[in-house]
Batch of 3 targets.
Target 1
Amino acid sequence: MTVLPIFFRENELFSVRFFFLETMVHGRTHYIQFNFDTYTQQYIDSNQGYGHITS
């Protein structure tokens, strides 16, 4: 399995989005995103989707 992590930080939210490169079709791929609160350093939630690899 090849996974590409992309990190986001916006205000008090830190997110890590893992793109699964094996499922890539026409520049779009499946991803899972985990969100954390930067103030409390706790896990908030996660979501998944299908889209372009963006930062």
Target 2
Amino acid sequence: MKAASENFGKYAKENLIIQVLGAIFCSTILDTGYTFGVWLFSCVGYWFGFIFIRVRRPAKPSKIDLLFIRFATLIIFGVTWAISPLVYYLIGDLL
């Protein structure tokens, strides 16, 4: 049986493939770059979270850590894409 720490690299490679395919897909959507910008934001957020988890628990990640490493880009993208119009609306009222 593999140790949980060995799954870090495997899940990170899977997520990197998802990030590249998602970037290609989002760049083809004609919405003045809004979806692509949200996708890039979610990718950067993923890598900050990945580094944080690797520093915090390098030898024995929890199941939640592995779940984050595997699916976080898609979760962050969905949440950010849904909330960002509200944030833009609120910032527009402040300016």
Target 3
Amino acid sequence: MWRPTGNAWSNFQRTVFQVSVWLADQHEHGRSRIRVARGWALNSVFIGLALPTFLQWQFASEFWCHCVGFGGSLGFLVLAAACGWSWSQLCGTEYLKIREHAEFLSSIPSYHGRSESPVA
């Protein structure tokens, strides 16, 4: 998967943000999706670790708390792994999209200076 090196990311972002407001909005939407996936990945780890501790602290003598704590912890850790994978895939996709958008906008000399959707 392609990852930006050096100033490539900054140059691609600058090209997209200066030339097309519509593509910049699309890029911001992709970044918000990345933030949601990252938040779920990190919060699921914390919940998965805190759930059995909380249940043990509240219901130490109950047998069901061990089952629920283990199952819930395992479920949240699997969710964290899935969200971590999703986070990495979204980052890679966003890198590719911004590079392709910048290359597309740079290849069209008549498009420079416009700020509306290229589709409309």
